[in-house]
Design brief:
Chain A: Its main location: membrane. Chain A: Belongs to the complex I subunit 6 family. Chain A: This is NADH-quinone oxidoreductase subunit J. The complex is a heterodimer of chains A (about 190) and B (about 100). Chain A is an all-alpha fold and about 190 residues long. Chain A folds into two domains: about 80 residues; about 50 residues, no CATH class. Helix content of chain A is about 65%, strand content about 0%. The radius of gyration of chain A is 24 Å and the shape is extended. The termini of chain A are far apart. Chain B has a single domain, classed as Helix Hairpins (Orthogonal Bundle). Chain B contains three helices and no strands. The longest helix of chain B has about 30 residues. Classes of the chains: A mainly alpha (about 190), B mainly alpha (about 100). At the A-B interface, helix 1, helix 2, helix 3, helix 4 and helix 5 of A face helix 1, helix 2 and helix 3 of B.
Chain lengths: ~190, ~100
């Protein structure tokens, strides 16, 4: 990596951590969402600098979209403009802070005391092509597992967030003969 | 740039996320904490790949972590919707028991 690349990498690292801390420091949830999006974009750009073009790009694209959804959610549920309403909703602040600091200290001790191998092996020629070939050949099991997990997530998400599910319509034991609907309809069954 | 330094950044991200996941009361803010923790994991996995073993296996692992983050987010939003409908609030304290 060139000197400019290294400087850029450190700036992005500092941005990621500081904007991550800002998520819990700013006093409105909309600003917290933007701070988290900045943190993710910084880490995505760091992945790009580490030659992982595909993963860096999907991290950035996915997280920006996710944060947009999150902002809509907060406005929807908070029933106000969260950007204008300062708020602090925390519990066990001191215990949480101590836990986080102790965790960081333990992780840092492990990182600094571990004898990591020196030198850096050369990456493969075309990283994205190599990833694609791995996913379609020896590592296909990962994709085979991820695909049904994604489908299950869609089904579970819809089931959980439904306004009226099958248990509301047919009772707790699903034994009700006719559905309990506010507007009876259908073909008279 | 060394592996240790990048891992320290990742550890800082993880710890900040842990603070948020423990301390926040709003479900969406707890999810933000979990996301930050996974953000640190992504950076650490990327650094391991770059410094130790630049083979596709490491990237596949990263892809799985990103997918896990997607699942966490989707399920979190669904649970937040459910809690809001059942309790009229999106606070974790209002979902401390499963009964209505």
């Amino acid at each position: 990596m060139t000197l400019i690349g290294e400087v850029f990498f450190w700036v992005l690292g500092a941005t990621a951590v500081l904007s991550g801390a800002a998520v819990f420091w700013v006093n409105s949830m909309a600003r917290a969402t933007y701070a988290l999006a900045i943190s993710f974009v910084a880490v995505g750009l760091q992945l790009l600098l580490l030659d992982q073009a595909y993963l860096g790009v999907i991290t950035i694209l996915m997280m920006v979209m996710e944060m947009a959804v999150m902002a809509v959610y907060m406005i929807m549920f908070m029933g106000m403009n969260p950007a204008l309403m300062p708020m602090s909703m925390v519990h066990d602040k001191r215990l949480s802070l101590v836990t986080a600091l102790v965790t960081f200290a333990l992780l840092a001790a492990g990182i600094l005391l571990t004898p990591w191998p020196s030198g850096r092996p050369a990456p493969t020629e075309d990283v994205t092509v190599a990833l694609g070939m791995a996913l379609m050949e020896p590592k296909m099991l990962a994709m085979i597992v991820l695909s049904p997990v994604m489908v299950a997530t869609i089904v579970a998400g819809v089931s959980l967030s439904l306004h009226r599910g099958r248990y509301d319509r047919y009772g707790d034991d699903l034994e009700r003969a006719a559905a309990d609907d506010p507007q009876p309809g259908g073909v008279g069954r | 740039m060394t592996l240790e330094a990048v891992l320290l950044i990742a550890a800082a991200l993880f710890s900040v996320g842990l603070y948020g996941a423990i301390s926040q009361q709003v479900v969406v803010m707890v999810m933000m904490g979990l996301e930050l923790m996974l953000n640190g994991v992504i950076l650490a996995a990327g650094a391991f790949w770059w410094f130790l073993s630049p083979e596709p296996t490491g990237q596949v692992l990263l892809l799985v972590v990103i997918a896990a983050m997607t699942v966490e987010m989707a399920m979190g939003f669904a649970v937040a919707t459910l809690v809001h409908r059942a309790r009229g609030s999106d606070m974790t304290d209002s979902a401390s028991e499963l009964k209505r």
